[in-house]
Amino acid sequence: MIMTKKIRAKKFQNLPLELKGITKKFPGIIANDKVEFNLREGEIHTILGENGAGKSTLMNIIAGLYPADEGEIRVFGELVNFTNPRQAIQKSIGMVFQHFMLVRNHTVAENIILGMPGVAALELKKVHQQIREISERYDLFVDPAKKIQELSVGEQQRVEIVKVLFKGAKILILDEPTAVLTPQESKALYEIMQRMANEKHSIIFISHKMKEVMNLSHRITVLSRGKVMKTLNKEDTDPESLADLMIGNLEAKESIKVSELLKETEIDKNENYNTCSEGKKYRSRKLTVSLKDIHAANDIGQPTLKGISLNIYAGEILGMAGVSGNGQPELADLLSGMRRPIQGSYIFEDTPLENPTVNEMIEKGVGYIPEDRKRFGISSGMSIAYNFLIRDFNNPKFISNHLLNIQNIFDYGSNKIQEFDIRAPSEKTPIGLLSGGNMQKVILAREISRSLKLLLASQPTRGLDIHATSFIREQICKARDRGLAVLWISEDLDELLMVSDRIAVIFDGRIVGILTKEEASINLLGQMMTGMENINSSDSAKNFDYA
After folding, report:
1. Which of 151, 200, 242, 244 is the most buried (most CB within 10 A)?
2. Which three-class secondary structure state does DSSP give residue 499?
3. Which helix (H) or strand (E) holds 491?
4. Are 504 and 477 in contact (CB under 8 A)?
5. CA distance 531 to 185
6. What is the pLDDT along the chain (547 residues), one digit of tens a residue?
7. CATH class of 264-365+453-547
8. CA 265 to chain CA mean position, Å
9. Fold of 17-249
10. Is residue 378 within 8 Å of 99, Cβ to Cβ?
């Protein structure tokens, strides 16, 4: 079980939120098609659907970010027509966004009170105290004085949650809130959600984790291609039936192996398993990356990597486990040429490197799936086809005499859309209009379609549905089997146990130890992630693996 106790069935009467006939269209896309939905008082109501099903668009309409083209919304029985998020907040609707809505150069406290009525009269010391009280109460520890740009992705997620709680919302929308949380943080959030429901808060919960959905929900609404397929009481359905509704067609169900994805997780069973076929023994393969005593600083000059040493071999996936904020993004940036080391040795395929640039690492065959796909992975205003070529604009197939060959570019984009099952009207569609899962497929297609030696995959399946998650895992595993070296950074320990040949654990900018997949378990990894070096395990859990 992922929770200490299940949600019990309860009687609901009041409807804090009602949607009738909600329709929203974008160029070439009907995102929401006559959606009917209601939310009961004290209810956790899950919205389930693949990436691109229309979940985020519907939530943005409820939160006041988008106007609906058709239909009506009632909040506590009152007909509303939101034209901006402030109006939704005034009606006690708060949303925790999957892609954070934070001002990076402002402090945590400034972000939390931003836009609140009477903000000038608020005393900052009092605000700090209130934030600390909320943080301590819900185990969502954030420093109100820190700037957002100093925080990790996981810490920024906590700020979003605290911001909603601070504003006292009665209707909460949680869009993939556990996507960047550790198992321990996720379990704490489950308890928070139960407590809020018991206190008559109403929660719309978006998740792709079926065990979460089945344990947390009172009701579940399934969306597919913008339409409501069905709304069900939790006790009247099961994961297989929900997956059938969500995925829809037999070909898709066969491709993602629904029964495999719905089996109990490592957290539930505490057993080892691996859904990637096992890679060839990495020690018989070529050493791609060797780091020795690497030190580096973050964007504001603070020491972040403090003596990193590790090897990555061709034909292996080296997983990296660690609580958010322990140096994972800085390590990926350093390997990709985006960040310079202060000291240490970086050897790539037997060649010592000294302050390599991004372009040099691209030419050497390094691909990068960044942690923040919207900020660093795409150019949102450009078409899908042009985003495929961000790494490859000098290819003579696409440029000649300094002129772009538009037809070849669009033909290539069209072929990649089909090959990687990217759901979009055409290759000319601006990539910023795609769902998160389809954006991630574009990034993956761009990176692994080149001749790569090393792939840096930072949270590659975060916030994706089971279809997109399975597809991306399968594609990366196939690339590994073709000889690619992969560094797979994830805060999802289940995922690392599924895909990794070895798992390195990082804490406070240092590698605590490196385990083979046979030696790794949730409990051991969890202990190592807290910085415990003297663990009763094999030598590989306690010693660095340089050889």
Report:
1. 242
2. helix
3. none
4. no
5. 17
6. 344 344 444 444 579 999 999 999 987 789 999 999 999 999 999 998 877 788 889 999 999 999 999 999 999 999 999 998 889 988 999 998 767 788 988 999 999 988 776 655 567 888 999 999 888 877 677 899 999 988 876 688 788 888 888 887 889 999 888 766 666 667 777 888 888 888 788 999 998 778 889 989 999 999 988 999 999 999 999 988 888 888 764 344 444 444 444 443 333 333 333 456 665 555 457 999 999 999 999 887 889 999 999 999 999 999 999 877 789 999 999 999 999 999 999 999 999 998 899 999 999 999 999 888 888 888 888 999 999 888 877 788 888 777 888 889 999 999 999 888 888 888 999 998 887 778 888 998 898 888 899 999 998 887 777 777 888 899 999 999 999 999 999 888 888 999 999 999 999 899 999 999 899 988 888 788 877 654 443 333 333 343 3
7. alpha beta
8. 18
9. Rossmann fold (3.40.50)
10. no
pTM: 0.63
Residue ranges covered by each domain of the chain: 17-249, 264-365+453-547, 381-450
> Residues of 15-45 as b/e, b for ≥16 C-beta within 10 angstroms?
bbbbbeebbbeeeebbbbbebebbbbbbbbb
Q: Which residue type occupies 447? A: E
**Amino acid identity for residue 535 in this structure:** I
